[in-house]
Specification:
The chain is of the alpha+beta class and about 650 residues long. It contains 19 helices and 26 strands. Helix 9 (about 260-270) runs parallel beside helix 10 (about 310-325), helix 13 (about 490-505) packs across helix 17 (about 590-605) and helix 13 crosses helix 18 (about 615-625).
Length: about 650
C-alpha cells in the first residue's frame, strides 16, 4: 500500500492558515483588504484582547448575496481573477481566494452581509471550517465579519502568540499603513471599546498623516511629485530635522497596496543623502501609480513584497524627486521655543533703528536691480590673516567653492525687480562711494540686465545673507539678518565646505597622486591582506596606490597631495578599513563619498577653537556657495534660526 495520502479539505485549510494567518494582524489585513476591494468608503475595525478574542470588520461596500456568501469560504474562491492573463494585470489587493477559508479553519466566524439597501441580507456562521448556520437576516448594505477565538483549535499556534500589547501594535501599524494608502476611506480602529485610530476619509493625504502621526509631523511634511513614462510618484516627505530611530515611519504604496521594498527605501535615503544624521530615518509616505503589467505581486505569501520589471527607473525617479524637493527649500530648522499661551497679536512696540552697514548695491538698486552676489565693502572677501600675519590655510574666495543649485547667486548676476519697481534713481539721491572695481561690476550688471535674455527658471531659495556678530564658547558663530538671529556650528559648516571640496577632488584623484620618497608601511592580518589584494584597483581609483611588501604588509607608494597634512596615513587606513568591511561589490562612488567625509572631518576647524571676525565672514561666504549649506556630511544641522518674532515674544515686546 502506498505511503502518500491526499489530505482532506479540513487539514489542507489548517495548513494554508499557517501561511496566511500568522497572527491577529494577518486576519485584520485580509478582512480590511477585502473591504477595500468591495469599494467601501468607511471601514470600522473593533478588536478585543489584541485580536485573540474578537476581530470585527464592518464596511459599507458592495456586500454579497446569499450564494456568494457561502461560496466565498471555499478554497480558491474569488471574484477578482478568472484566467491566467488576469494574474499579470492585478488591480485588487486580494486575488487568491485563500484568506476567508484559512481564517475560518482556525476560528469561529460569523458573516452578516447585504448587497443592497433593501435591508434583506444573509447570516452565515462557520466554526473550525464547519458550516454551523446559514439564515436570512436584516442587514444594511455592506459586510460585517466577526472572528472570535482565533486559534482556538490549534493550541500550538496560540501558545506562541506574543503579549496583547505586541499583537495590538501589529494590528495598529497595519491600519496606519492602510489609512495612508487609502486617504479616501474613513478608518476607525477600536480596542476594548477605546478608539485608537480615526481618519476623515476625505481624500487628503496630509490630513491622514496628521491623524496618524500628529499635526506637528504633518506641518513638517513636504509634497513630492514626479513622473516618467511608466511611473507617477506622489506623496509627502519630512524635513530633515524630523527623523526616527528606525524605518517604521516610511510607507511605500504601489497602486494602493502597501509593500515593503528595500531598494525603494534606499532610493529615498539616497535622496536625503547627507541631510540625515547617522542611524536616523525620515518619515515619508510615497504613492506610486503604474501599469499593473509592470509589477508582480504574486511573489510573497502575505503580498507584502513585489517585483518590478523596470526597478532602476523607479529608483532613479524617487531619488531625483526627493533631491529636487529639498533643492527648493531653505532647510534651516527653527530653534525649539515654548508654546505660546495666546495667539499672535498685532500689537508691537516701537523698534529701535540700529545701524546696519549698507551693501554696495546702491547703484544697482537705484536702477531697479539687485546684485545678490555682491558684498558690502566691510564684508567683501579678503584672505584673513593669522596671528603670524599669514593667510588662513582654509580661507578661499567665495567663488572657489562650487555654486549650489539652491544656494546663493553668483556675483554679477543681476535679477530684475517686479515690473512695478521704478527703474530710475531719484534725483539728488545720495550715492555711496564705490571703488572702480565695484563701479565696473555694477555697470556691467546694468548692461547685462538691459540686454534681452532668454527666460530663466525661477531661482531656488538662496542661503540667507548673514552678518556675523561674534563667537559663542569657541564653537558657535552668532549672526543676524533682517529675519532674526542665527547660530552656526563652525565645525559642521567647515566640514560641509571641505566635504564638497574633497568630493570634487576625488572625482579625478589620479592626476593629483604623487609618489613618496619614503613609502608608508601598513600591516594587516592574513585574511585582511588576502581580501585587500583583490581590492587594490578600487583604491587606485581613489588615488591611493599600494603594493604587496611580503607577508601581510603593504607599501603606500602614492596618494593625492591634497590629503590633509599629517593625517594621510590615518585616512588611508580608514579608507582600507571601510573597503574591507564591504561585503558586496565595492561601489566606487560610495568609496569616493566616504573618503571625502573622512578628509573633511580631519581638515575642519574644531569646537572650542577661537577664530576672528574676518575668518567668520569667509566661512559664511564659502558656506553660502555650497551645494547644500544646511547639514554637515553626517547629517547634523549647520544653522539654527531664532525668528525676530520669537525673540520679541521672549522679551514681551509682542504680547
Amino acid at each position: 500500500m502506498g505511503k502518500i495520502n491526499i489530505l482532506d479539505e479540513h487539514i489542507a485549510n489548517q495548513i494554508a492558515a499557517g501561511e496566511v494567518v500568522e497572527r491577529p494582524s494577518s486576519v485584520v489585513k485580509e478582512l480590511v483588504e477585502n473591504a477595500i476591494d468591495a469599494g467601501s468608503t468607511r471601514i470600522d475595525v473593533a478588536i478585543e484582547e489584541g485580536g485573540l478574542e474578537l476581530i470585527r470588520v464592518t464596511d459599507n461596500g458592495s456586500g454579497m448575496d446569499p450564494d456568494d456568501c457561502e461560496t466565498a469560504f471555499f478554497r480558491h474562491a474569488t471574484s477578482k481573477i478568472a484566467s491566467t492573463q488576469d494574474l499579470f494585470a492585478i488591480r485588487t489587493l486580494g486575488f487568491r481566494g485563500e484568506a476567508l477559508p484559512s481564517i475560518a479553519a482556525v476560528s469561529k466566524v460569523e458573516c452578516l452581509t447585504a448587497p443592497d439597501t433593501s435591508g434583506l441580507g444573509c447570516r452565515f456562521v462557520i466554526e473550525g471550517g464547519t458550516v454551523r448556520a446559514k439564515t436570512e437576516a436584516t442587514a444594511p448594505r455592506g459586510t460585517d465579519i466577526a472572528v472570535r477565538e482565533l486559534f482556538y483549535n490549534t493550541p500550538a499556534r496560540l501558545k506562541y502568540m506574543k503579549t496583547i500589547q505586541t499583537e495590538l501594535g501589529h494590528v495598529t501599524d497595519y491600519i496606519y499603513r492602510l489609512a495612508l494608502a487609502h486617504p479616501g476611506i474613513a478608518f476607525t480602529l477600536k480596542h476594548n471599546g477605546h478608539t485608537l485610530v480615526q481618519t476623515l476619509g476625505n481624500g487628503d493625504l496630509l490630513q491622514a498623516i496628521a491623524a496618524i502621526y500628529g499635526t506637528t509631523v504633518a506641518k513638517s511634511m513636504l509634497p513630492i511629485r514626479g513622473e516618467t513614462l511608466d511611473y507617477r510618484l506622489d506623496g509627502y516627505i519630512a524635513k530633515p530635522e524630523l527623523t526616527r530611530a528606525n524605518r517604521g515611519g516610511i510607507s511605500t504604496v504601489i497602486n494602493g497596496r502597501y509593500i515593503r521594498n528595500y531598494p525603494m527605501v534606499q532610493a529615498l535615503l539616497q535622496g536625503y543623502h547627507t541631510l540625515l544624521p547617522i542611524n536616523r530615518f525620515p518619515v515619508a509616505v510615497l504613492h506610486v501609480q503604474m501599469d499593473p503589467t509592470l509589477i508582480d505581486v504574486n511573489v510573497h505569501p502575505a503580498k507584502l513584497e513585489v517585483r518590478f520589471s523596470k526597478e532602476p527607473e523607479l529608483m532613479q525617479l524617487v531619488e531625483r524627486e526627493v533631491r529636487e524637493t529639498f533643492g527648493k527649500q531653505r532647510l534651516i530648522p527653527a530653534a525649539s521655543m515654548p508654546a505660546a499661551k495666546r495667539p499672535r497679536e498685532a500689537v508691537v512696540q516701537e523698534q529701535l533703528e540700529l545701524y546696519r552697514p549698507q551693501a554696495p548695491q546702491a547703484q544697482a538698486s537705484a536702477a531697479g536691480l539687485r546684485l545678490p552676489g555682491a558684498a558690502a565693502p566691510a564684508e567683501r572677501w579678503s584672505a584673513p590673516a593669522t596671528a603670524e600675519g599669514s593667510a588662513s590655510p582654509w580661507a578661499q574666495p567665495p567663488g572657489g567653492a562650487p555654486q549650489c543649485s539652491g544656494g546663493a547667486a553668483g556675483a554679477g548676476e543681476p535679477q530684475l525687480r517686479a515690473a512695478s519697481a521704478s527703474p530710475v534713481a531719484q534725483p539728488g539721491a545720495e550715492r555711496e562711494r564705490l571703488t572702480p572695481r565695484e563701479t565696473a561690476s555694477a555697470s556691467e550688471a546694468l548692461l547685462r540686465a538691459m540686454t534681452p535674455q532668454e527666460e530663466q527658471p525661477p531661482a531656488l531659495p538662496a542661503f540667507p545673507k548673514l552678518h556675523p556678530i561674534g563667537q559663542l564658547h569657541g564653537t558657535y558663530i552668532v549672526a543676524q539678518n533682517e529675519e532674526g538671529l542665527f547660530l552656526i556650528d563652525q565645525h559642521a559648516a567647515h566640514e560641509r565646505i571641505n566635504y564638497e571640496h574633497y568630493y570634487d577632488k576625488f572625482g579625478n584623484p589620479a592626476e593629483a597622486s604623487q609618489e613618496l620618497l619614503v613609502p608608508l608601511t601598513l600591516e594587516f592580518t592574513a585574511i585582511e591582506a588576502e581580501k585587500l589584494a583583490d581590492r587594490l584597483p578600487q583604491l587606485e581609483q581613489a588615488g591611493v596606490y599600494l603594493e604587496p611588501f611580503g607577508g601581510a604588509s603593504f607599501l603606500v607608494r602614492a596618494y593625492p597631495h591634497w590629503l590633509p597634512t599629517g593625517e594621510e596615513q590615518a585616512l588611508i587606513e580608514e579608507m582600507i578599513e571601510w573597503l574591507l568591511g564591504e561585503k558586496k561589490q565595492v561601489d566606487i562612488g560610495k568609496l569616493r563619498e566616504k573618503a571625502a567625509i573622512m578628509c573633511s572631518c580631519k581638515a575642519s576647524i574644531k569646537a572650542n577653537q577661537s577664530i576672528g571676525l574676518l575668518e567668520i565672514e569667509t566661512l559664511l561666504d564659502r558656506l553660502a556657495a555650497c551645494r547644500n549649506p544646511y547639514t554637515c556630511p553626517h547629517g547634523r544641522p549647520i544653522v539654527v534660526s531664532f525668528s525676530t518674532y520669537e525673540l520679541e515674544k521672549m522679551f514681551k515686546r509682542v504680547m
